[in-house]
């Protein structure tokens, strides 16, 4: 099954600083591109665990004795690694982008390019879908989703129009949603605004921010000393959380300082922010917004 070219492949795996007999986790398996690169660098006693909640991704399972694929959301990383007797690992890799496969399969409802039912579930077993968000959230909840996750300043007006429209008939498809919100889509920026609307609904459907926070909070316990975290984010909401957690060990506010103004954090950043080269963006346009941050357990 065709998935996508992994973004920043070499840089992300380099960031893990792989030891041959180490234990690693790829929490966003997808098409398996990053996992294959990790396995290339592992010795015969190394181990790689991968997570993916999407049933389609399970078809990309790699046949290798060193590899285990766990069909679960990465927010449960600690629980499922314990099941396999793993309490500490040498590195964790995460690529938070929606896979090209999810964008390219019309019926999944992730892309603004296709007419499709409102779905957007990464785990097709989940009850909450884009249909439920659009048709069952109250106006205040809708406004919050569009404002917080889409960073849309016209979110209050959009929420009001959606609620008024669905009272006449349910909004079932992407095309219907587009028509309902037509007056908010300026011709020159239609795709950009639509992408923000879709992003907001998708993040809510998949509880992406909560899952990301839960994952990050578990990393200091899971990583061995000098173990690495290598994370690719695609929008400012994710990147902000990753950056703050690496810097402060928390998502909001400032850590407590001692009398000398110093504070302790579980991780330290390794190098600076890494973004794709112009060449990579030319080959793979979806890499254009990727940001890689690497951290090490102190």
UniProtKB/TrEMBL annotation:
It holds the Pfam family Methyltransf_5. GO terms for molecular function: rRNA (cytosine-N4-)-methyltransferase activity. GO terms for biological process: rRNA base methylation. It is an enzyme of class 2 (transferase). Its EC number is 2.1.1.199. Keywords: Cytoplasm, Methyltransferase, rRNA processing, S-adenosyl-L-methionine, Transferase. The keyword NADP does not apply. It is found in: Cytoplasm. Coiled coil: none annotated. It comes from the Bacteria. InterPro entries: RsmH, SAM-dep_MeTrfase_MraW_recog, SAM-dependent_MTases_sf. It catalyses: cytidine(1402) in 16S rRNA + S-adenosyl-L-methionine = N(4)-methylcytidine(1402) in 16S rRNA + S-adenosyl-L-homocysteine + H(+). GO terms for cellular component: cytoplasm. Its main location: cytoplasm. Specifically methylates the N4 position of cytidine in position 1402 (C1402) of 16S rRNA. Belongs to the methyltransferase superfamily. RsmH family. NCBIfam families: 16S rRNA (cytosine(1402)-N(4))-methyltransferase RsmH. PANTHER family: 12S RRNA N4-METHYLCYTIDINE METHYLTRANSFERASE (PTHR11265:SF0), S-ADENOSYL-METHYLTRANSFERASE MRAW (PTHR11265). HAMAP family: 16SrRNA_methyltr_H. This is Ribosomal RNA small subunit methyltransferase H.
């Amino acid at each position: 099954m065709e998935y996508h070219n992994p973004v920043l492949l070499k840089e992300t795996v380099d960031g893990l600083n792989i030891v041959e007999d180490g234990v690693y986790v790829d929490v966003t398996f997808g098409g398996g591109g990053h996992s294959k690169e990790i396995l290339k660098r592992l010795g015969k006693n190394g181990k790689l665990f991968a997570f993916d909640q999407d049933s389609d991704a399970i078809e990309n399972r790699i046949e290798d004795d060193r590899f285990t694929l766990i069909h679960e959301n990465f927010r449960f990383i600690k629980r499922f690694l314990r099941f396999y007797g793993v309490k500490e690992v040498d590195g964790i890799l995460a690529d938070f982008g929606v896979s090209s496969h999810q964008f390219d399969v019309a019926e999944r409802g992730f892309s603004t390019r296709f007419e499709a039912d409102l779905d957007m579930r990464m785990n097709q077993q989940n009850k909450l879908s884009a249909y439920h968000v659009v048709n069952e959230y109250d106006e205040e909840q809708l406004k919050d989703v569009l404002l917080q996750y889409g960073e849309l300043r016209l979110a209050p007006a959009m929420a009001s129009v959606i609620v008024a429209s669905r009272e006449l008939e349910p909004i079932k498809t992407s095309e219907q949603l587009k028509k309902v919100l037509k007056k908010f889509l300026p011709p020159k920026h239609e795709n950009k605004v639509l992408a923000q609307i879709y992003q907001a609904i998708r993040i809510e459907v998949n509880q992406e921010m909560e899952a990301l926070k839960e994952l990050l909070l578990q990393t200091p316990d899971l990583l061995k000393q000098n173990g690495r975290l290598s994370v690719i984010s695609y929008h400012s909401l994710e990147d902000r959380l990753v950056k703050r957690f690496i810097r402060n060990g928390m998502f909001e506010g400032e850590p407590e300082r001692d009398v000398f103004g110093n504070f302790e954090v579980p991780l330290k950043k390794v190098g600076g922010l890494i973004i794709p080269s112009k060449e990579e963006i030319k080959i793979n346009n979806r890499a254009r917004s990727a940001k890689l941050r690497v951290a090490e357990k102190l």
